[in-house]
Design goal:
This protein is an alpha/beta fold. The chain is built from 15 helices and 11 strands. It has 2 domains: 249 residues, Rossmann fold (3-Layer(aba) Sandwich), CATH 3.40.50; 117 residues, no CATH class. The strands form 3 sheets. It has a 7-stranded mixed beta sheet with strand order 5-2-1-6-7-11-10, sandwiched between helices. A two-stranded antiparallel sheet has the order 3-4. A two-stranded antiparallel sheet has the order 8-9. It binds S-adenosylmethionine.
Length: 405
């Protein structure tokens, strides 16, 4: 008899399959994929495309699927691993090997279920998974490590770990809305006996979409987008990216469960350190460091200072800190727009998808402020258009800023 979990999951994963590799794990909704496809529609074949804020590698993957050579940068080691795993080709032999070995894994998992296995040190882990679900997930993880090694050890087995990442979210009480994560009211105990079935469904859906080879190439590299120096002499034809927005969303916070289970994070303080490196990061230590942060470059567009100042003097909780937050965001983006110039071909077109935000009634017009940075830095043909309304109650939009170098 087919269990409910299987029926429900079959439905979800069939729906996801149409997204191919894009459906594995992503931060961007499906419209992001369409937008990148549109921006690449008239680009000559085998162009060199860069996404300096890779995230889940949407731009790189779309570009490579269209036959281009793509580079992506990120500072988050988990996303660098995920991006490379998502964008490489897997041989038939490798996929067959995974299917064969997983049968053994599930046998071992049944034995390990009654033992104590490694679990990640996630704060308040019981909010994410019930103790029974946690026991099964940790048994499955141990069995997977015994057969395939830890996530970063063997590239050819990355797909197994992507499936496991998907499984931990499917079985958790986290609710992922578009960009931010919250908890459902009750910790789900999703028919936990079926976790192995669910894992097989997820894995099979991922293996099937990995059968289709990508004709171009993608390399996701660990590069801080504020300090781009060079790329082995390579020059970029087109930049398409969605950088963080000045909206206090922390990618580290959203990615915590994946990062702990795959051992890219081991302790809470590492998460804060990573968020401090991230543009727009304000989580843990990143928030307290903002208190003493001071701008070093007075050549920023004056509107950036006035926007930050009106937030600082407004009557809101932590107004002063948030004024600094906004100033640092635009300062970091200015550094980025300055340093990327060294690797752009003359005539390179750039497209930045960004969102505006509000702080205590003060509008932060991200598109206008970044356009002004671009102008000061010597970019030309700068324009921006609304691509999407983000929230029906507030005047929040996503814009595409385009420019030429
Ligand atoms: C909005 S997300 C990108 C979403 C992406 N378009 C996708 O498809 O998932 C922004 C990304 O910028 C990265 N990032 C933040 N600060 C960075 C920096 N200084 N250098 C490079 N990447 C950075 C974050 O880790 C995050 O993955």
């Amino acid at each position: 008899m087919i269990s409910t979990i299987q029926q429900r999951s079959d439905y979800t994963f069939k729906a996801n399959r149409s997204l191919g590799r894009h459906g594995w794990l992503r931060l961007t909704p499906a419209y992001g994929v369409k937008l990148v496809e549109k921006l690449l529609a008239n680009v000559e074949t085998e162009a060199i495309v860069l996404d300096p804020f890779s995230g889940t590698a949407t731009t790189g993957l779309v570009a490579a699927e269209l036959g281009h050579q793509a580079f992506s940068f990120d500072i988050n080691p988990f996303l660098i691993w995920l991006g490379n795993a998502k964008c490489r080709n897997y041989s038939e032999h490798c996929l067959r090997d995974i299917r064969k070995q997983v049968k053994q894994v599930l046998k071992e998992y049944k034995i390990l279920r009654v033992r104590d296995n490694w679990t990640p040190k996630i704060f308040n882990i019981e909010r994410w998974w019930s103790s029974d679900t946690l026991k099964l997930l940790s048994a499955l993880r141990t069995a997977l490590v015994n057969h395939f090694g830890e996530p970063e050890e063997r590239d050819e087995y990355n797909l197994v770990w992507i499936a496991f990442c998907r499984l931990i979210i499917e079985t958790s009480s986290a609710a992922f809305n578009h960009v931010s994560m919250s908890f459902k009211e009750t910790v789900s105990d999703r028919n936990c006996e079926d976790i192995d079935e669910l894992f097989l469904i997820i894995l099979e859906s991922i293996l099937l979409s990995a059968e289709k080879n990508i004709c171009g190439s993608v390399q996701v590299l660990k590069v801080d987008a504020r300090h781009i120096t060079e790329l082995d002499g390579i020059r970029i034809d087109k930049v398409i990216t969605s950088p963080p927005y000045p909206n206090r969303i922390s990618y580290i916070r959203e990615l915590r469960p994946y990062m702990y289970w795959t051992k890219f994070l081991n302790e809470a303080k590492e998460a804060g350190e990573l968020d401090w490196l991230a543009i727009g990061g304000t989580w843990g230590i990143a928030t307290s460091r903002l208190n003493s942060w001071q701008v070093e470059d007075e050549t920023l567009p004056s509107d950036i200072f006035s926007t930050a100042n009106s937030i600082k003097i407004s009557d809101g909780k932590n107004a002063s800190l948030l004024g600094v937050y906004v100033l640092k965001y635009f300062y970091d983006m200015h550094l980025h727009l300055s340093s990327i110039r060294s690797i752009l071909k003359d005539g390179c077109e750039l497209h930045y998808i960004v969102g505006n935000s509000t702080f205590f009634g003060n509008m932060v017009d991200t598109a206008a402020l970044l356009s002004e940075s671009m102008r000061i830095l010597g970019y030309s043909k700068i324009s921006s258009e609304i691509v999407r309304k983000r929230n029906c109650n507030k005047a929040l939009y996503e814009y595409c800023i385009s420019a030429t170098w």
